[in-house]
């Protein structure tokens, strides 16, 4: 090829490459859709900023695990209230229903039933031809089962037909067979009532250990992916086990499932179950986002770090003892400001005996309810008495997977006022459930322009 033809070829290629382009050859960057942050339902935006974390006055308990230090956290969203029984039941029922639907579809496939046959056939897989399904359609959002490997991965579960729970309305013997496996045996039932076998309500999820992958550059990606399987039903026996020689059977029998307690904070949930709930909430929201063509996926819901929790609890008040300021637990009208144990043996002095509804008492200045009292709250941190000495001053976080002592904050209905202080630290083991520990979730805010350093005293 001579030089003239070569130059002509380069010119044609250049013109073709720039054809239709609006950048005129300039470095203008890739333009995406304009981002409009959407506040998650039931959450408040907590503006990022700096605050004094730890004890601002004398540590009367002499624990000395929270020396004062200035730290900065980024903006995030936080639930206005603790996660309620009603909200957690949505998670439990979603897991239960997903498992039931998968079992129905598998049995329908085995016996050769299709929707036209009625009965269990109505719950058959919606798409038997996996070749035409995208990789994304085979993903957990559509096909979560909770059963582990089944050999039916990639088959689309039918969510369009309602499940039937009244035994009198079961459509056929196959449906009865599947439902029967989800209940305890008849010999374990009493008063004519059959009970769900809650041990089968298991949620499976996976996540990447980003910290481990960042520290160990030689690690393979698949080795940094952690898979978890968690029983999701709360341990209602905590109301009995937490208090020896105390009559709490009504709370054990009714607290989680009865509508009278729907708006009360869920308890009897381990740190591991709280984390699983966060993962489910992300999946549930993104499943909806996926159904709306063109909608962006949302950030993960998660437990707050210890610093985020304390920053949010303070509500913009620097060096305050409680979320409402302090140093007193009563208002100027003589009313208690939170649900706790104000007097030895007198749990009802604050107008509450056990827990109260999640939207009780006055919220703090970030419009967050019960950041002190009602139930203590799990956070995404491991307890180390000396951690404040070595943590970073920007978004400090200490969560050692080998340390099963996980931080709980805020105090509860059975605690004295010391544990209600925004700087007080306590812990429980990750696999332990208590009648006085619940949780709330957070979500990262996209962007960094929302900051606030308050001068309130």
Identify the notable features of this structure and list them briefly:
457 residues; alpha+beta; paralog of FGE (formylglycine-generating enzyme); 2 domains; 4-stranded antiparallel β-sheet; 10 helices
* Total of domains: 2
The fourth-level CATH homologous superfamily of the largest domain is paralog of FGE (formylglycine-generating enzyme)
The class by helix and strand makeup works out as alpha+beta
Distance between the termini: 80 Å
- What share of the residues does DSSP label as strand, in percent? 5-15%
What general outline do the C-alpha atoms trace?
globular
**Number of H- or I-type helical stretches:** 10
CATH topology of the largest domain: paralog of FGE (formylglycine-generating enzyme)
The helix fraction, in percent, is 10-25%
CATH architecture tag of the largest domain: Alpha-Beta Complex
Largest sheet: 4 strands, antiparallel
The chain-level mean pLDDT equals: 87
Provide the succession of SSEs.
HEEEEHHHEHEHHHEHEHEEEE
Widest sheet, order of strands: 1-4-12-7
* β-strand number: 12
Provide the low-confidence segments as ranges.
138-143
The top level CATH class name of the largest domain: Alpha Beta
Give the oligomeric state of the chains in this entry, treating copies of one chain as homo and distinct chains as hetero: single chain
The rounded Rg comes to 27 Å
Pfam family, one: FGE-sulfatase
Domain Sulfatase-modifying factor enzyme-like: 43-442
InterPro entries: CTDL_fold, Glid_motil-assoc_lipo_GldK, Sulfatase_Mod_Factor_Kinase, SUMF_dom, SUMF_sf
Keywords: Lipoprotein
């Amino acid at each position: 090829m001579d030089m003239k033809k070569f130059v002509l070829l380069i010119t044609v290629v250049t013109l073709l490459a720039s054809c239709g382009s609006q950048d005129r050859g300039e470095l203008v960057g890739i333009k995406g859709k304009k981002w409009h942050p959407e506040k998650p339902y039931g959450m408040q935006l907590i503006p990022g900023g700096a605050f004094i974390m730890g004890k601002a006055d004398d540590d009367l308990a002499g624990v000395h695990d929270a020396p004062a230090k200035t730290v900065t956290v980024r903006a995030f969203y936080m639930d206005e209230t603790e996660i309620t029984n009603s909200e957690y039941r949505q998670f439990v029922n979603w897991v239960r229903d997903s498992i039931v639907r998968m079992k129905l579809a598998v049995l329908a496939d085995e016996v050769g039933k299709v929707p036209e046959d009625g009965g269990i056939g109505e719950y058959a897989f919606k798409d038997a031809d996996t070749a035409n399904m995208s990789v994304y359609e085979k993903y957990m959002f559509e096909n979560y089962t909770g059963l582990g490997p089944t050999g039916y991965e990639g088959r689309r579960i039918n969510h369009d037909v309602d499940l039937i729970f009244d035994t009198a309305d079961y459509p056929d013997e196959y449906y009865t067979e599947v439902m029967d496996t989800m209940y305890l045996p008849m010999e374990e039932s009493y008063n004519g009532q059959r009970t769900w076998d809650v041990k089968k309500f298991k949620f499976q999820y996976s996540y990447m250990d980003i910290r481990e992958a960042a520290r160990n550059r030689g690690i393979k990606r698949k080795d940094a992916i952690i898979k978890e399987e968690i029983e999701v039903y709360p341990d209602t026996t905590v109301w009995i086990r937490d208090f020896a020689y105390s009559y709490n059977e009504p709370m054990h029998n009714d607290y989680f499932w009865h509508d009278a307690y729907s708006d009360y904070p869920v308890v009897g949930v381990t740190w591991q179950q709280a984390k699983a709930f966060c993962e489910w909430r992300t999946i549930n929201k993104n499943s909806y986002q996926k159904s709306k063509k063109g909608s962006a996926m949302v950030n993960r819901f998660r437990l707050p770090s210890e610093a985020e929790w304390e920053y949010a609890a303070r509500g913009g008040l620097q060096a305050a003892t409680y979320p409402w300021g302090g140093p007193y637990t009563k208002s100027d009208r003589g009313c208690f400001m939170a649900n706790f144990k104000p007097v030895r043996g007198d749990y009802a002095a604050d107008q509450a005996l056990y827990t109260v509804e999640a939207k009780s008492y006055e919220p703090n200045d970030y419009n967050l309810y019960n950041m002190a009292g009602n139930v203590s709250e799990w956070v995404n941190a491991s307890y180390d008495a000396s951690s404040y000495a070595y943590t970073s001053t920007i978004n400090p976080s200490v969560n050692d997977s080998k340390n099963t002592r996980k931080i709980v904050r805020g105090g509860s209905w059975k605690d004295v006022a010391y544990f209600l202080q925004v700087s007080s630290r306590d812990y429980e083991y990750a696999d332990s459930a208590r009648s006085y520990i619940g949780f709330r979730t957070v979500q990262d805010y996209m962007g960094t322009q929302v900051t606030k350093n308050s001068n309130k005293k």
